[in-house]
Design goal:
The complex is a heterodimer. Chain A starts with 5 loop residues before the first helix and ends with a helix. In chain A, 78% of the residues lie in helices and 0% in strands. The longest helix of chain A has 26 residues. Chain A is mainly alpha-helical. Chain A has two helices and no strands. By secondary structure, chain B is mainly alpha-helical. Chain B has two domains: 103 residues, no CATH class; 114 residues. A two-stranded parallel ribbon of chain B has the order 1-2. In chain B, strands 3-4 form a two-stranded parallel sheet. In chain B, α2 crosses α4, α6 runs parallel beside α8 and α8 packs across α10. Chain B is elongated. Classes of the chains: A mainly alpha, B mainly alpha. Chains A and B meet through α1 and α2 of A and α1 and α2 of B.
Chain lengths: 45, 224
C-alpha cells in the first residue's frame, strides 16, 4: 500500500489546482475580460 | 483560490498577475479588482516569514510584477492601497515605490481632485505607510512635493485641509518636542515652504494653523 505523505498530497493538490487555474485562464482569455462568474470560479478553485 | 487555508502561494499570485496583465484596462466586473487586491494582499501579508508585514523580498516581487507591463493600472493601484491599509508595517523599498508611483499618477493631470485627496489620505494615514498611522518626514516631504507641483491650480478644497492637518500633525505630534516648533522643525518648515520661492495659500494656511496651535515656537520661524 502506498501511503501518501503530506508533501505528496500538497504536490498532487497543487498540480490539480494549477490545472484548474489554467483551464479557467483559457476560458477567461477567450473573451478577454473577467466577468462576475469567473471571479466566483477563481474564488472557488 | 486556496481560500480554504486562507493563503495564496507564489504560483497562484503569479497566475493572478498574468491574468490581470491580460485583461488590464478592459471592462472587467468590479469584483475582479476587489478579489485581486485581497488575494495578493493575503499573499504578502499572511505568510510565515513576515506575517502582517511587507519585507524586502515581497517588495521586490510586488514591484517587479506591477512594473512588468510598464503601467500601474487601477487594479494594481487598489492592491497597493489595500496593502497600505492592512499591513502592520512595510519596508522602505515598498514605501518609496508607493509614494513615487502615486506621485506620478496623481500629478498626471496637474491638479488634485477629491478622489485623489482620499487616496493621499489613505497613503499617509495607512498603518502600512511610511509613518504608520502617524505622518513621518518621508510622507511630509512627499506632500510638499505634490503641493509645489499643483500650487495655484484648481485643486479640490479638501487638498488644503489635508495639507494643513497632515503637516501640523507632523510638526507638532512628534516625540522630541510635542506641541512645539523646535529649531530643527522651523528650519525644515522654512526650507519646504520656500523651496519654490513663494508661499502659496496652502502653505500660508499651514503656517497659520501651526502658529495657532503650538505652545512654543522657535524664533527661526520668524523669517516667514
Amino acid at each position: 500500500m502506498h501511503i501518501i505523505n503530506s508533501s505528496d498530497f500538497k504536490q498532487t493538490k497543487n498540480k490539480k489546482t494549477m490545472s484548474n487555474l489554467d483551464e479557467l485562464k483559457t476560458s477567461i482569455l477567450a473573451d478577454g475580460i473577467i466577468d462576475a462568474d469567473e471571479v466566483r470560479k477563481l474564488n472557488a478553485v | 483560490m486556496q481560500y480554504e487555508d486562507g493563503k495564496i502561494d507564489r504560483e497562484e499570485a503569479d497566475f493572478l498577475f498574468e491574468l490581470n496583465d491580460a485583461v488590464s484596462g478592459k471592462d472587467n466586473h468590479y469584483s475582479w479588482k476587489d478579489f485581486f487586491a485581497k488575494a495578493i494582499t493575503d499573499h504578502v501579508l499572511k505568510d510565515d516569514k513576515s506575517y502582517g508585514t511587507v519585507d524586502d523580498e515581497e517588495a521586490d516581487y510586488l514591484i517587479s510584477r506591477i512594473q512588468k507591463d510598464g503601467k500601474i493600472d487601477e487594479v494594481e493601484q487598489a492592491l497597493l492601497l489595500k496593502i497600505i491599509d492592512k499591513a502592520k508595517g512595510t519596508c522602505d523599498k515598498f514605501q518609496d515605490f508607493v509614494l513615487s508611483s502615486f506621485k506620478t499618477l496623481i500629478l498626471e493631470d496637474g491638479v488634485i481632485d477629491a478622489a485623489e485627496v482620499k487616496t493621499i489620505k489613505s497613503i499617509i494615514y495607512g498603518a502600512g505607510g511610511a509613518g504608520g498611522v502617524k505622518v513621518d518626514v518621508k510622507e511630509a516631504e512627499w506632500l510638499f512635493e505634490l503641493n509645489d507641483a499643483v500650487s495655484g491650480k484648481a485643486n479640490h478644497e479638501s487638498w488644503k485641509a489635508l495639507m494643513v492637518e497632515a503637516i501640523t500633525k507632523y510638526v507638532l505630534e512628534d516625540e522630541t518636542s510635542p506641541n512645539e516648533v523646535d529649531d530643527a522643525e522651523a528650519d525644515w518648515l522654512v526650507a519646504k515652504i520656500m523651496k519654490d520661492g513663494t508661499m502659496d495659500e496652502v502653505e500660508k494656511a499651514i503656517l497659520e494653523n501651526i502658529k495657532a496651535k503650538a505652545t512654543k515656537i522657535s524664533s527661526k520661524l520668524d523669517t516667514l
